[in-house]
Amino acid sequence: MFGDQANKLVLDAHRTSNLPEITLYQSDLVDDIVKETNDLGRDVDYITEQQRTNPEGTSAEQIVALECQLFVARLSMRRNKRCLLAHQKLRADKMNEFAWLNIDPSDSNSTPQPSLTKTGALGSNYTTRMILDNLSNQEQEYFKQYSQLLVDMKSKYVDIDLSGDLEPPTSIFIDVRVLKDGGEVQTEYGVFNLIKDSQFYVRKSDVERLIQQGYLEEL
Amino acid sequence: MSLPSNIKQNLMPSEISFMTENEYIQILPRYSMKSIQLIGTKIPNLRALRREKVPLWVALILKSQGKCNIVIPDWLNLIYLKARYDEEVKFPMKFSDLPFNWIDLSKILLSKAPDDLPDPVHQLRSIIQDLREIRQVKTRKGLKEVNESNIGLSGLSLLEINELRPFMLSVMNKLREIHESVRHDDYDDEEVIDVDDDED
User: Fold this and answer.
1) Contact A100/B at CB under 8 A
2) Mean pLDDT of all residues in chain B?
3) B9 vs A208: CA distance, rounded Å
4) pLDDT, tens digit, 9 for 90 and up, residues B173-194
């Protein structure tokens, strides 16, 4: 029936909504739905054409039948549209969430970084991983432009790190442990030599960004 | 979006204790210190053994450096809390009068300033736990009374409201939706009846 494909897409979106990453874009399914909608559109065109060309040649019953057909086709098209939009909005929201997280997206061929799956207060269904290859072309473009918007907004409020940690501050100095080698990292306030498993006692504001990126772990 | 979905509607416990840390509390400084003008508040001139009111977060910093004693609020002692507990037992339909942030404040003070407390820490801990449990039982009982229009939470503290909020909001919203549809039908019926009456 009409709308079955769209239902499949929505089920997939529902599954994705609880994952901490963005799954592969289902271009085949989307293409099928668009094709179905195009077919329905052609039906509508055909019916309206018929209604227009011979208004006298059809009986009252036929007119009613044609109008029912028209109505059902319209409803099916609207349902397809709704499912497509719901699916796309979910993905867009996830991309926005990721853009705010301040982590660089990874390519599928680079090794996955397990330390990026940040848990704790923010919960697990927070989008923490995104693979650029999983996005469609338009989505990649959207992500790029959204990130650009974000940068524009952040540059207006230089004093505040808008995409910083959402946890309220508890102490000025913290102990951090290095989770993976990062070489020498220059922060605003000095140079760190990130050697795996070494420990530092530093100002929290200096290393917040490194914690977000998964190089350091707060103790 | 800018905010992850799970903290859009609710406060994190860490945010609640952050709010508690902005409350003022009396301290007993051990050293003299000149006043400091901060952006949001002002720390007055501190003189040794002269009580002053400062924000809790300042008090905690000074306390961790051993530069002050915190004056414990008058509700955080065994006698007062026992009385509140008895009250809770005696009146099963209402919550006893405790400060809006009693859970966080007592937690912070018990962990950060245990030597300033008037009573042994373990006894305070157990009475606070008892209070929390009996109040939780009461909120559970209150859940039976949930309806679509209003709810009375007088006497509940911020943390207790916060852990109730996600559940309450969704349930009451659903009830309201259902109720609205029912009420619509009622109106329709009344109109029909009215029309019938007119015809008669």
Assistant:
1) yes
2) 86
3) 25
4) 999 999 888 766 555 555 554 4
- Residue B118: Cβ within 10 Å count: 11
- The reply to whether B73-180 shares the fold of B12-71 is no
User: pLDDT confidence of A29, banded at 50, 70, 90?
Assistant: very high
> Do the Cβ atoms of A162 and B14 come within 8 Å?
no
Q: Quick one: closest CA in A to B18, which residue? A: A168
Are the CB atoms for A87 and A16 separated by under 8 Å?
no
CB contact under 8 A, B14 and A167: yes
Query: B86: pLDDT confidence band, cut at 50, 70 and 90?
Result: very high
Architecture of domain B12-71: 3-Layer(aba) Sandwich (3.40)
User: Do the beta carbons of residue A9 and residue A114 sit within 8 Å?
Assistant: no
Would the CB atoms of B4 and A96 count as touching at under 8 Å?
A: no
Specify the CATH architecture of the domain B73-180.
Up-down Bundle (1.20)
Which pairs with CB-CB distance under 8 Å and at least 24 residues apart come from A179-182? A179/A115, A179/A214, A179/A215, A179/A216, A179/A217, A180/A115, A180/A214, A180/A215, A182/A210, A182/A215
Predicted local distance difference test score (pLDDT) of residue B69: 92
Q: Which residue of B has its CA nearest to A101?
A: B2
ipTM above 0.90, yes or no: no
Please report where in the chains the tokens 């059902």 appear, as a residue.
A72
Confidence check: pLDDT of B200 > 60: no
For chain B, domain boundaries: 12-71, 73-180
Q: Position A110: which residue type?
A: S
Question: By CA distance, what is A146's nearest residue in B?
Answer: B1
Give residue-wise pLDDT tens across range A102-147. 776 765 554 444 444 443 334 445 666 777 888 899 999 999 999 9
pTM of the predicted structure, to 2 decimals: 0.77
Chain B partners of A18 at a C-beta cutoff of 8 Å?
none
